[in-house]
Amino acid sequence: MHDMSLKETIRYNKSGPARYCCRPEVWDEVEHLLVPFGRKTIVSGGNRARASIQDKLYPALEAAGIEYMVHEFSGESSMVNVQKLVDKCEQYHPDYILGCGGGKSLDTAKYAAEIYGVPVITIPTIAATCAGTSNQIIVYSDEGEYLENVYPRTNPALAIVDPTVILKAPRPYLISGIYDSLAKWYEGSASYPGSDNSDIFDVTALAVAKMLKDSYYQETLKAVNDFDHQVLSKEFIDIVNLNIYTAAMVQALGIKAVRNGIAHATQNGLTTLPGAHSITHGEKVAYGIAVQLMVTQAPQEEVDELFGFYRAMDFTPTFKAFHIPFTEENIVSVAHKAVIDVLMTSKPFDVITEDMMVAAIKKLESLF
Q1: Cα–Cα distance for residue pair 268/266, rounded to 1 Å
Q2: What's the predicted TM-score (pTM) here?
């Protein structure tokens, strides 16, 4: 297996998938989109994800003359689940893997495709993360604790998104994607000034992250209201594209200096607590953004802006709101996991100590 470390991936610029299609009629284009990759594939995804697209995907594959078998994903993007899919590939010999579902399912498909040596094509059925287009894979234990990030050689070859499928997905996933992507601005704007290896791609990433943040503040409430009323509006599709595509572009272009940091490290810290496993990734990241503003002693107007947005979204960034006991043991567990995270061991976050994180967590809890 080749080097899939952060150190290796920053040597190459990767901005996004080779092709990205987001439109309701995308299923009519399956033959045009997929046949160039081959006529034999494995469809990997969870039961709910596959059920949400089976009436559209399977007939389209059959009409295109594409042979397929189904692999049932469940649980975490763990090495055990990755190996299960690799084993299936070694038995079936697909030309490519079709990964469908959310972040953990898609990351499992991406990792298996990297190991087996075939392209991966993603079909996100929720807009909870940018996993469908990013060149990053998050690895968890089978129990759901964050272990590491790894970086394949390329982004997915193709991402296929039907916004009408996402319109029917559970609401919390859309909200999760908004929070997860919003962190690109808060983390990137904090990491960039203290970086010692930034370049023009990082400048581009920071500009896109600012656009992303401004778009969320302007369009989210209408997009979520449209979702609640099942209206396929421009604003809703904008949010879907920001969540799935634009956030990944920031992550890839800004991998050196406009990158994940305190917010995502805090999310990773929360995965050490059993009570946090039912909380969406994005909600944990949103909590991490708030912790970051406490740690960095952000200007009050920045804090007020973020918390005003959270109030409008009916989100409270506290252990209490998450129904997690606010104990010293839990606080230290989150803080310790965060500061040893690879995201925190590079400039400018390498100066943040466990005590600083503990103090920030306690200060944040006291504000609500």
Answers
A1: 5
A2: 0.93
